[in-house]
Amino acid sequence: MIKLTATALIHFISPVMQVTENFQKRELILDDSWEKDGKSYPNFVLIEFSGDKMAILDNFAPGQRVTVEAYVNGREYQGRYFNTIKGMSVAPYQPLQTSHSVGQRPTPAPAPDYPQQPQYPQAPGYHAQGAYPPSGYPQQPSYPQQPSYPNQGGYAQPAPAPMPRTPQGGNLGPEGLPFGN
Length: 181
Description:
The chain is mainly β.
């Protein structure tokens, strides 16, 4: 599943719908339409809420700007692919505080609430993640540059071997291999 966060205006909130005997859902439709160069581009996004998450929508109404956290589920059916966006939470939109007086530092935004990555013990012989080049890493010796003597009677350099012509599809096929059959 892919997690996403979206902020937009609520366009519509459906009543509870009985989909099957054991499954109910509510739909939240967000309006993320925009205008550019005098043209209007409608964009409505449907997010499903089911189970105990349906009650979250009781606290909101069309016209409110909200931030929604959801998961995108995808599936294949008879060669076609379909997506469902399943809502997990809805909160009133909180704009970031960017204005501040001269001489004052802006208040940092709170860190996102991401789950902590597990910390695994470091295997011997490997360096800590993010440390490159690792401390104590031995420098590789540099090799002296070979002198070049253009047109001074040195040894003649052979012409490079011709490369086999690559077919249009980019696959060399057996004819492009460097060894015989």
